[in-house]
């Protein structure tokens, strides 16, 4: 599918932000790609130096004097050393935006070979450039524009290199617009409207970027003369300076100048608009009765036909009166040809038209589910993925492009998004660790990070039920093998030649027993399964094993139990002997008296004994 840029111009002036009526949206960016300094143009628009890009280099066109505006002279290009996919990631509030780019080659690299590349917005392919470019396009450059919704707080404008060609961009402009514009309430927010022609009668292009005429959205309007077919080429243009009512109003904010000129012809007015087949096209028709000689309804009536299908009968005076804006829109579905034919066929009087817009309705491509985008960006940072691999933008979208290098994606079960099923990054010079966010890749089947310089521990989140093949061999991972790996449906496990240690979970080892492949060699600290050594009884992974902790726990329990038993027995024994230390005072006196009587009796016995031996007696109570 090719969405070729429509505007070829050598002059590319800029947006003008003013509007006669208050405009409620004020978010805008004007980026001078390749420039290192800010600038302000003649319309008082501030241009930012180049920013928000993911990679690439800067250059200048070969003939700067050929271009009148500064932002057309510098450019950013993306060589293969920056990867096949590079982006501008611009932070924006959620909403709808008018996005315009200026692309130029002008032999900036001296190779006289215009590049082939694609461009996407929010993960949807919108423009394709193929070498060789037309000569005028190569030298003068071209503007391309579209309307797109940004829902996640960041605009992703990405470029994809075809073969070895480096994509190029000279300027990027983003303006917030009314989210209800261009009938989005009916068409929804899942389409990108790519400009295939925004036409207005006259000989030159006008509007922001070409003249000082305002347009709140920043739209520019090109002459319709190149698109008139057959006798319509001789149609005449009429103009007025009268005020046109009904202009510059929400949600489309069509400028008054659009309705102050018109083209008319006696007979049929016909346009042929180049398009790409197999797409739907949204057509907007603009009318105003600016011919004061037409006085009443019915004097100018004509039919609008699209590819010979009668879309509407128009009587401007009947609908809105004179000098008032009137618009209608029509969608041509599933166009099969490369030309869209529009005719205004007269019923009464001469047909008249003030403007015609043609937009390809490009359906938004499937995007990677948000949580897996988070996981992949975390892995990009933790694994230190080199720029040359082009891990930028959406990991899986657009589906027309290859996914991130080494990544394989599939549609999820309900067909609403894309999921990552395989990551093959063996021998890529990665340095870092595996982020715990890998647990968000719930559809990952194959993970190969072998032969890199990764370290750290294996995250618990690696235990994905979907995981069937895991190759982390020849790295520097340390620590133990997480038990969570046993919950996976692994058929191949290669953890050899790392610094892992500790007991190998038996459930993981059983992968080899049940017909799978497992290699744990080259990890001196692993133990517990053959042919690895037995694990120490109480020591594992440089710390106490589970058995050691249990043994210590039991020992502590037994020690405390014995200690409590000893204390308990001591307290009981002491309680039984408490009467030796707390007798009443009368019992103490009686005991002392009994002791005195025993001593007296002993003395009498001793005296009687001495008397029997003839010894003199000693009086008991000497005085």
UniProtKB/TrEMBL annotation:
Cellular component per GO, a single term: membrane
- InterPro entries, from UniProt? Leu-rich_rpt, LRR_dom_sf, Malectin-like_Carb-bd_dom
TM regions (residue ranges): 550-571
Instruction: Extract the signal peptide range.
Output: 1-17
Q: Primary place of residence? A: membrane
Q: Which SUPFAM superfamilies does the entry link to? A: L domain-like (SSF52058)
Keywords, ordered alphabetically: Membrane, Signal, Transmembrane, Transmembrane helix
Q: How does it sit in the membrane?
A: Single-pass membrane protein
**Protein name, UniProt field:** Malectin-like domain-containing protein
Tell me the classification of the organism that encodes this protein: Eukaryota, Viridiplantae, Streptophyta, Embryophyta, Tracheophyta
């Amino acid at each position: 599918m090719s969405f070729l840029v429509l505007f070829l111009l050598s002059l590319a002036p800029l947006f003008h932000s003013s509007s006669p009526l208050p405009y409620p949206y004020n978010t805008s960016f004007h980026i001078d790609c390749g420039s290192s300094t800010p600038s302000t143009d003649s319309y008082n628009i501030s241009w930012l130096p180049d920013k928000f890009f993911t990679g690439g280099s800067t250059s200048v066109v070969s003939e700067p004097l050929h271009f009148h505006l500064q932002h057309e002279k510098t450019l950013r290009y993306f060589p293969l050393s920056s990867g096949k996919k590079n982006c501008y990631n611009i932070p924006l509030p959620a909403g709808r935006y008018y996005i315009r780019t200026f692309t130029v080659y002008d032999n900036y690299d001296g190779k006289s070979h215009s590049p082939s590349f694609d461009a996407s917005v929010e993960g949807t392919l919108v423009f394709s450039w193929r070498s060789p470019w037309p000569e005028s396009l190569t030298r003068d450059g071209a503007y391309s524009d579209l309307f797109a919704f940004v829902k996640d707080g960041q605009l992703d404008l990405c470029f994809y290199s075809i073969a070895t060609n480096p994509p190029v961009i000279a300027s990027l402009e983003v303006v917030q617009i009314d989210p209800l514009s261009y009938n989005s309430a009916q068409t929804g927010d899942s389409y990108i409207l790519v400009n295939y022609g925004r036409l207005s009668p006259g000989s030159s292009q006008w509007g922001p970027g070409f003249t000082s005429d305002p347009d709140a959205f920043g739209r520019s309007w090109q002459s319709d003369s190149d698109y008139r077919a057959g006798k319509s080429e001789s149609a005449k243009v009429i103009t007025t300076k009268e005020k046109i009512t009904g202009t510059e109003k929400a949600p489309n904010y069509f400028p008054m100048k659009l309705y102050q000129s018109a083209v008319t012809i006696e007979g049929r007015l016909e346009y042929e608009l180049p398009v790409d087949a197999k797409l739907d096209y949204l057509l907007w028709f603009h009318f105003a009765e600016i011919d004061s000689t037409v006085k009443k309804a019915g004097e100018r009536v004509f039919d609008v036909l699209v590819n010979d299908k009668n879309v509407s009968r128009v009587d401007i005076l009947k609908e809105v009166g004179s000098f008032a804006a009137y618009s209608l829109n029509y969608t041509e579905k599933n166009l099969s040809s490369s030309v869209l034919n529009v005719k205004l066929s007269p019923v009464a009087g001469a047909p008249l038209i003030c403007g015609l817009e043609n937009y390809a309705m490009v359906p938004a491509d499937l995007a990677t589910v948000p949580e897996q985008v988070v996981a992949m960006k975390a892995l990009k940072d933790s694994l230190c993925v080199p720029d040359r691999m082009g891990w930028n933008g959406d990991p899986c979208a657009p589906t027309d492009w290859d996914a991130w290098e080494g990544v394989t994606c599939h549609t999820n079960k309900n067909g609403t998004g894309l999921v990552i099923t395989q990551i093959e990054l063996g021998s890529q010079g990665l340095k870092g660790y595996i982020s715990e966010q890998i647990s968000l890749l719930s559809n990952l089947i194959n993970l190969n990070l072998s032969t890199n310089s990764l370290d750290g521990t294996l995250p618990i989140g690696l235990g994905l039920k979907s995981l069937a093949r895991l190759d982390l061999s020849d790295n520097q991972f340390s620590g133990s093998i997480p038990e969570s790996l046993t919950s996976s449906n692994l058929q191949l496990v290669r953890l050899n030649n790392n610094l892992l240690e500790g007991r190998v979970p038996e459930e993981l080892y059983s992968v080899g027993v049940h017909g799978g492949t497992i290699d744990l060699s080259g990890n001196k600290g692993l133990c517990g399964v053959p042919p690895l050594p037995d694990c120490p009884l109480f020591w594992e992974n440089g710390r106490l094993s589970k058995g050691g902790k249990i043994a210590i726990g039991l020992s502590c329990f037994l020690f405390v139990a014995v200690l409590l038993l000893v204390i308990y027995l001591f307290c009981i024994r002491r309680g039984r002997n408490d009467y030796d230390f707390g007798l009443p005072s009368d019992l103490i006196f009686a005991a002392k008296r009994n002791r005195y009587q025993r001593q007296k009796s002993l003395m009498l016995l001793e005296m009687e004994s001495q008397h029997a031996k003839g010894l003199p007696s000693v009086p008991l109570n000497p005085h």
